[in-house]
Design brief:
With 463 residues, the chain is of the alpha/beta class. It contains 20 helices and 15 strands. It has helices spanning 4-14, 20-33, 47-57, 70-77, 87-95, 102-128, 133-144, 149-158, 160-182, 190-198, 209-222, 230-239, 266-274, 304-324, 346-357, 370-383, 394-400, 408-413, 420-432, 442-450, and strands at residues 39-42, 66-69, 188-189, 242-243, 250-254, 256-260, 263-264, 278-281, 290-293, 297-301, 336-339, 361-365, 387-389, 401-405, 434-436. The strands form 5 sheets. It has a 6-stranded mixed beta sheet, sandwiched between helices. Helix 3 crosses helix 4 (70-77) and helix 6 runs antiparallel to helix 7 (133-144). It starts with a helix and ends in a 13-residue tail after the last helix.
Length: 463
């Protein structure tokens, strides 16, 4: 507690402008060390400042730099009419606020944070019970420093009360999932689930902060690794009984049978009979156990326009072939063609393993630019030689090259390719610095698919 001398001394120094910089530096040093320690240098000191500091330290300063130790200044104070006086008390009176060292401030903040988390844990305990999944997740997050620990700490620094609400929403989510399991009410849509928890149907969307924390919590619940992509994220959510949007993730297909158990799915069988392309969503793939192409080869393209062109000409080619062989009693079936519309999304990622199990050869073709080549390369890295790169060679690049210039950032992406063929093509792309597009290879792509060496005449698929 400060006395009258402290206030009188502070009033004196505050009335002298020549001491302003000196006291600012004294404050900084005390905060750093928590005591009267360290040395101070006043650069470009005025004559008034030199006299003022010298009057306390007992030194004479001639140059424009005034150097003294904090302990010297405190000792000099004891020779003034205000003695005895403590430097800390003087500084607090001078600046009108408590003086804490950085270490003391750090310890105080750490204590406040620990108290906050203990209070939050107590709230969870009260609302959900000691053995609830919410309490066990919260304890695991802090004991193992994972499952959302970093997110919670970061958000606490921004807004503690908002963070507490976030934790309570996750706890409510756990309670909702447990109740659903006990009543066999699994697979609630993500938007419905989020609205039930927070009132906002987009609250737990994948890109949101609550969505990221829910993902971490679900990984703890299912004892699973964090997802590396949207497909794995969907898997984690579905394992917990939450269905993400199963409509926007889709791909186009032509000439492909899907199976429910041992039976062909009647809807896709009808599409194949009618030789019509169709869309496959994640919702359509629920319950699907197998996939079978209508030949030995499956072709996959990246671009929708290319897909439409090839489908139209495949149908025409099929009709012509069937007309030529109308007296043979054999039915020529369409070829199998898929379109991912760029980066393969969750539906494509889920379908590809089923296609690989069918034993058919899979050929993938994309744009010969940095993004298109990276998509092809990632598919190859994930599925190995089960997926072969189609029409993306250096020769194909020369045929597909456009006037679209590739940026420096795009050229850097070419350094990250692993597939031997794509690496060879990348060298050509870096030389030309122009993108190659599938639209410039339409005849080549179609020729590969309708060539007689690839044609399959199967008479028993629909008979």
């Amino acid at each position: 507690m400060h006395n009258n001398k402290d206030r009188e001394c502070a009033t004196y120094f505050k009335s002298r402008e020549e001491y302003r910089r000196c006291f600012g530096e004294l404050w900084k040093k005390w905060r750093s060390y928590g005591r009267a320690a360290g040395k101070i240098t006043l650069h470009g000191a005025s004559e008034e400042e030199r006299r003022a500091v010298g009057g306390i330290t007992g030194k004479i300063y001639y140059g424009e730099e005034v150097r003294f130790s904090v302990s010297e200044f405190e000792a000099g104070l004891q020779k003034t009419r205000f003695a005895p006086i403590e430097l800390k008390a003087l500084l607090e009176e001078y600046f009108g606020k408590p003086l804490c060292s950085r270490q003391e401030q750090k310890e105080t903040k750490e204590k406040e944070k620990n108290d906050f988390w203990q209070e939050t844990a107590a709230v969870l305990f009260e609302k959900t019970g000691q053995e609830s999944a919410a309490v066990r997740w919260f304890e695991a997050a802090f004991s193992q420093k994972k499952y959302g620990y970093q997110i919670l700490n970061r958000e606490y620094a921004e807004d503690p009360q908002q963070t507490k609400q976030l934790v309570c929403h996750i706890a409510k989510a756990f309670t909702r999932l447990e109740a659903g399991r006990n009543m066999d009410e699994l697979e609630v849509p993500l938007a419905v689930f989020a609205a039930d928890i927070s009132g906002n149907p987009h609250y737990f969307d994948r890109g949101t902060l609550p969505g990221q924390l829910l993902t971490q919590a679900v990984c703890w619940l299912e004892q699973a690794e964090l997802p590396e992509n949207s497909y794995e994220w969907r898997e984690r959510m579905e394992q917990a009984g939450i269905l993400p949007d199963n409509v926007s993730s889709s791909l186009h297909a032509f000439g492909l049978l899907l199976y429910l158990g041992q039976q062909a799915h009647p809807a896709y069988e009808a599409f194949c009979r009618l030789r019509q392309p169709f869309v496959i969503t994640m919702e359509n793939l629920r319950g699907v156990t197998g996939a079978e192409p209508l030949g030995e080869r499956i072709y996959i393209v990246e671009n929708e326009m290319v897909f439409s062109y090839l489908v139209a000409h495949l149908i025409k080619s099929g009709e012509e072939k069937q007309g030529e062989q109308k007296n043979t009693g054999e039915k020529i079936l369409p070829y199998t063609l898929l379109c991912t519309s760029g980066q393969p999304r969750a539906a494509a990622q889920k379908l590809l393993p089923l296609l690989l199990k069918s034993g058919a050869s899979i050929y993938y073709s994309g744009d010969i630019d940095p993004d298109g080549m990276r998509i092809a390369d990632r598919l190859w890295q994930k599925f190995g030689d089960g997926i072969q790169i189609w029409r993306m060679s250096p020769e194909d690049y020369q045929k597909s090259i456009s006037a679209e210039h590739i940026t420096e950032n795009g050229l850097v992406k070419l350094e990250q390719l692993h597939h031997p063929l794509l690496r060879g093509t990348a060298r050509c792309v870096k030389e030309e610095q122009m993108a190659g597009y599938q639209e410039n290879l339409l005849e080549e792509l179609l020729g590969d698919m309708v060539g007689r060496r690839f044609l399959h005449i199967v008479s028993d698929k629909f008979n």
